[in-house]
Amino acid sequence: MTKPSQDAPTGAAPHLEVVPLGGMGEIGKNITAYRYGDEIMVVDGGLAFPDAHQMGIDLIIPRIDYLQQHAGLIKGWILTHGHEDHIGALPYILPRLPKVPVYGAPLTLGLVREKLSEFGIKDGDVDLREVDLNDKVRIGKHFHVEFLRMTHSIPDNMGYLLTTPAGVVMHTGDFKLDEQPADGKPSDLARIEQAGKDGVLLLISDSTNAERPGRTPSEAEVARNLEELISGLKGRVFLTTFASQVNRIQNLLHIAHRQGRRVVMEGRSMLKYAQVAQATGHLETPDPFLTSEEVSGLQDQQILYVCTGSQGQPMAVLGRLAFGNHAKIALRRGDSVILSSNPIPGNEEAVNLIVNRLYEIGVDVYYPPTYRVHASGHGSQEELATILNLARPKFFLPWHGEPRHQINHAKLAQTLPRPPKRTLIAKNGDVVRVGPDEFKVTGTVPAGAVYVDGLGVGDIGDDVLLDRASMGQEGILIMTAVLHPTPHVEIVSRGFVRSNRELDSQIRKVALEAVEGGLREKKRLEDVRDDMYGAVRRFVRKATGRNPVLIPMIVD
Amino acid sequence: MTKPSQDAPTGAAPHLEVVPLGGMGEIGKNITAYRYGDEIMVVDGGLAFPDAHQMGIDLIIPRIDYLQQHAGLIKGWILTHGHEDHIGALPYILPRLPKVPVYGAPLTLGLVREKLSEFGIKDGDVDLREVDLNDKVRIGKHFHVEFLRMTHSIPDNMGYLLTTPAGVVMHTGDFKLDEQPADGKPSDLARIEQAGKDGVLLLISDSTNAERPGRTPSEAEVARNLEELISGLKGRVFLTTFASQVNRIQNLLHIAHRQGRRVVMEGRSMLKYAQVAQATGHLETPDPFLTSEEVSGLQDQQILYVCTGSQGQPMAVLGRLAFGNHAKIALRRGDSVILSSNPIPGNEEAVNLIVNRLYEIGVDVYYPPTYRVHASGHGSQEELATILNLARPKFFLPWHGEPRHQINHAKLAQTLPRPPKRTLIAKNGDVVRVGPDEFKVTGTVPAGAVYVDGLGVGDIGDDVLLDRASMGQEGILIMTAVLHPTPHVEIVSRGFVRSNRELDSQIRKVALEAVEGGLREKKRLEDVRDDMYGAVRRFVRKATGRNPVLIPMIVD
C-alpha cells in the first residue's frame, strides 16, 4: 500500500500501533493512542461511572502510564465529542502530560473549557484548537486526520479518517445514522464510501448496540412522540433526560414554543450544557428560559420543566421532586413526568424507586417502552452493517463495547457480502499492530482503572474496595484488649447486629479468656492478639453465622 | 347480598377485613390475612430477596406482629403455590404461631416439607393438609375456600374463591393464562366466569405485568424455541433457568429425550426441586438423570446440563463455570450456554458480568431478547383484562405489584366494559374493610420487613444497615487514645485509603493535640473523646474530601 518511511521501525513493513487505554471491552472511559514510529497521537480522554461493587467511588478514569512513559512522543490529541465518557477525564490527564495541540469541534471544546475551569486549569495551560467538521489537520509528521460528521445524541460529533504511512484507519467515533438529525446535518456517508473505495486498512467502529436488530430510531421520531404526548397534557410537565442530550433538548424547546409552554431548566448540569451549547450556537432558544419563580404566574399548561435526574440519582432534580425535598418545587396531582431516557445498566433499581414514588404522589408518569420517548445515540445492526459495507475495511476492530457487544459486532461483520479479512477482539492495554499485511496483538501496556473518590485520585485500590465491601456486607467488630492494670477487653461494633448486651458480654469473655491464656503462657503480644482474633472469629461465626471484619487491638 | 351473621361485629353490615402483610405495593414476601368476626385465615408466607441497599442481608421475611397479636383467632392457612415468595418464610413464621391446618396442593406441600425439614421442624409440629385443585375446604366457621387451577411457571398453582358472609372474594394468586401449559391443564376460566355471574364482591389479582401490553407467551412457545435452538447445536449445551420452573424443565426433559441428549442437573436447588417434583408426580423423566461423571463417556452433542445461576449469582453453577472455578466441569469452545431467564431487577449487572465472561471464554451464548427462550410466569394486560371481564368484581384490589404495577392495573380495569365500582391501591399493613356496600381502608397494622442474616432473624435493623452503607461507601477510621503513661494515639483504618504513612501521622497528630488540649483543660473523658472526634472529622474532610465512619476510643 505504502512504502516504509524513514521513521518506520527498520526491518519491518510500515506499521501503526493502536493502543486502546480505555473503552475497549467496556462502555466508558474512552481513550486510544496511535503510535507510528516515534510519534503518538491520542484520541479522547473519558471517564466511567462506578458499578455497584466499586463502593463509594465517585468516578473512574483510565490509567495513562503508557502516555506518561512516552510523554515526549505525544504530538497531538483529538476529541470526537463532548460526552463525559470521552472528555470527562481530561482535567485529570492533561495536566500530567506535555502541552500539545488538542483538536475538537466548537461545542466539544466549549464543554472541555468549562470542565477545565472547574478544576482551576487555565486556558494558557492547554492548547485547545478548534476544528470544523470536515477539517483536516496534521499531527506530527505521520498522522493526517480528516474529521467526519457522524450523528449522535450531541451536536458537533465526529468520526475521522486517519491516514498514516501504514494505511488508512476509519474510526466512527460514537454514532448512529440519524436520517433526520435535530441540526439537519446527517452523517457523511459519501466520504466514508469514497474512503472505502480508496482503501481502508482498519475500521474501528462503535459496538454499543451490536446486539440490537434493525435501526435505532431517529431523534426526529422521539421528537414527534414527545410532541404528541405533551400536546395532550393539561398540567405542568416535568421532563428528564441526560443534560448532554443537546439535540433532544433543542427539539423540546421548539415543541414547547409551538405549544405555548415556557421552559425552566432545572439542575446544575442541565444549565451548564445549555449555556455552553447556546454560546457555541448549538442551542437555539425560541423563548428565553425562565426560572421556577418566573413561571409561578403562568398557568400549569404553560410550563415545561427540563430536569436532571434521569438515572435515579436521589440528589438530582427529579429525585428531590420524587422524595418531596426540592427546595422550590413540589409535585402535585395533575402534573406529568416524562422520563425521556432509559436506565443505564446498574441504575434500574434507583430509577424504579423514583418511578414508584411518582406514582404514589399521584402524578402521571410516562416512560419507555410504553411511551417511545427515548432513543439510543448508538446505531443498531443495520447501521453498523452500513458502515462496514461502505468502509470495506481489510481489518476490523470492534470498539466501544463489552465483549458481548464486540463479539456480536464481529459476527455481524462476517455475515456481510465483503467481510473484513480479519477481526480482533481487543482489550484495554493491547498493542494492536496493523500494517498492509498484518493485524495482531503484539504486546500489552498497563491499562485499567484509577478510582477518584473525594479529593483523592488513585489512592483507593481494589484492596480498599474489598475492605469496604466486607464491612458493607458484614459490619465490623473492634476488640481492644487493655492489659493494665488488669487485663480487660472493650468492644465496639458498627453494622454488625443491633446492640445486644448478652452477645457483647459473651464476646468480651471469649476475648479475655484468649488474652489471659496467652499472657499466662508468656506469648508475644502479636500472638496474644492473634489468639484473641481467632477465638472471637470462631465464637462469632458459631453464635451468629456471620463474619464481620474483626479488628483486634492490644494496649499494653 | 348476605345477612349479617351472629358473629359479625354488631351494629354494622357484615364485613370482611383483608390485611395484606406482604406483597402489596411490592413484588415479594406474599402473605395476606383475612379476618371475619373473630376468625382469621392466612394465605401464603413468602420471602423477598434484599435489594442493593440492604447490604449483607440474606433474605427478608414479613413482620407478623398482627398474626402474633391475634394468634388465637387463626383458624387455618392456605398456600397458593410453591415459589419462595409464597412459602419461603414459613419455616420462620409457622413455629411462632399456633398449629392450625395448612392447606396446599401436593407439589406445594412437598416443597414446604423439604424446607421445614432443612430447618429441623418435624412433621408433627405442623398440620399440613393436602388438597387437590378444585377441592373445597372450610376454615373456621366463616371461610369457605374453593381452590381454582391457575397456570403459572410451577405446577399445582392455585387461585381460590373465598366465600364469607360478607360476600365472595376471588383471588387469582400468581397466574398467566397459558393456553398450552406443560401439564396440559389450563386455568379454570369457566369457574371464574360462573363466579362472576353469581357475584364476586372483591377481586384480588396479580399486577406483576400490568405494564406489558398483549399476552405473555406460553411455555409451549418457549419450549418450541428451545427445541429449535438446541436442535441446531453441535456441542454440549448448558441451560440455566430458575430451579422452580418445573414446567419448563419438564419440557426440556422431553426435548432432550427427542434429541438424544442425556440430562445432568447441576446445583443444589435444581436437584431439590427436581426430586420433590418427581416424588409428587410433577416431573416425568423419560431418561434418568445422569451425573457429570456419568456423561463423561458420551459425545458432546449427547449432553444437556441444566444449571442454577440464572441470576448471576457467582457461587451458583453458571457463575462458577463462567469464572472457571467449578470443581468438575470446565467450559470450552464449542459449548453453548442458554440463559432461559431474564435478570430480576437489581441483578442486571451480575448477569451481564457472567455473560461477558462466557463470551470471553469463547462459548456460544443464547439469551433473550435475541433468542425467545424465556417467558414470564405472570399474565400481561390482555390476560388481566380477561380475569376482570370474567369475574366482574364490584371492588378491585390490585395485588402482587409495586405502586407502578398496581396503578396501571387499576387504570386497565377502568378501560374495560364493566369496570369495578371502586379500586383501592393498598399497602402492606392496610386493613381493607369490604362488605356488600363498603370498600375502604379503615386502619393499619404493623407490617414490613424482618431481615434474616446468617443465623439472626430480626437482629438487624435499618440503623445497622445504615452503618453498613456508610462503611461500605467511605470506610472506617478507628482512633484509640491511650492516656498512660503518656498520651498517644493509635489509628487503624479499613476501606478508607491505601495505607499512607504521612496521612496517618497527620491524623495522629491532630487527634493527639485535641486529646492533650482537653486533658490540660481537665475536661471529662467523654468530652475529650468528642474533641478528638471533631478535630479528626474536620481534618480528614479537608485533607481527603471524605467522611469515613470515625470511631474514637479512649483508654484511661
Structure in words:
Two copies of one chain form a homodimer. The first copy, chain A, has 556 residues and is α/β, with parallel strands linked by helices. Chain A is 31% helix and 24% strand. In chain A, strand 9 (143-149) and strand 10 (158-164) form a beta hairpin. The longest helix of chain A is centred in the last third of the chain and has 20 residues, at 501-520. In chain A, helix 4 packs across helix 8, helix 5 packs across helix 11 and helix 6 (219-231) runs parallel beside helix 7. Chain A has 15 helices and 26 strands. Chain A folds into three domains: 16-214 and 376-457, Ribonuclease Z/Hydroxyacylglutathione hydrolase-like (Metallo-beta-lactamase, Chain A, 4-Layer Sandwich), CATH 3.60.15.10; 219-366, Metallo-hydrolase/oxidoreductase (Rossmann fold); 475-554, Ubiquitin-like (UB roll), CATH 3.10.20.580. In chain A, the strands form five sheets. In chain A, strands 7-6-5-3-2-1-20-21 form an eight-stranded mixed β-sheet. In chain A, strands 8-9-10-11-12-18-19 form a seven-stranded mixed β-sheet. In chain A, strands 14-15-13-16-17 form a five-stranded parallel β-sheet, sandwiched between helices. Chains A and B meet through helix 10, helix 12, helix 13, strand 24 and strand 25 of A and helix 10, helix 12, helix 13, strand 24 and strand 25 of B.
